Amino acid sequence: MTTVEGLGEPGNLHPVQEAFWAEDGFQCGFCLPGHLLVTLKLAEQKEDPSEEEIRSALAGNLCRCTGYQSIVAAVRRAVRQPEGA
């Protein structure tokens, strides 16, 4: 079982973390671990999820800091890139 602590490390981020960084898909950090792990699971299940599928996957992890546009963009980027990219 992977936890957020097992994803990456300073200077060597996991591709999902890189995608969230590139798309500004983070705010205060309270919900970020859940979003990262949901993204990992979604990437295992779907190669090219629709925006509706992404939003549905994220629905159980509420973020009060943002309108989700950057989070959805980060998930889309993370799911589409090859592992280790």
Looking at the structure, what is the overall shape? globular
As a whole number of angstroms, the C-alpha radius of gyration is 12 Å
Low-confidence stretches: none
Biggest sheet, in brief? none
SSE run: HHHH
Average per-residue pLDDT, rounded, comes to 89
User: Approximately what portion of the residues adopt beta-strand conformation?
Assistant: under 5%
Structural class: mainly alpha
The total strand number stands at 0
Number of helices: 4
Distance between the termini: 22 Å
Overview of the structural elements:
This protein has helices spanning 15-22, 32-45, 51-58, 69-80. It is built from 4 helices and no strands. The longest helix is centred in the middle third of the chain and has 14 residues, at 32-45. Helix 1 runs antiparallel to helix 4 and helix 2 (32-45) crosses helix 4. The protein is globular, with a radius of gyration of 12 Å.
List keywords for this structure.
49% helix; globular; 85 residues; 4 helices; mainly alpha
Give a quick rundown of the structure.
This protein is mainly α. It contains 4 helices and no strands.
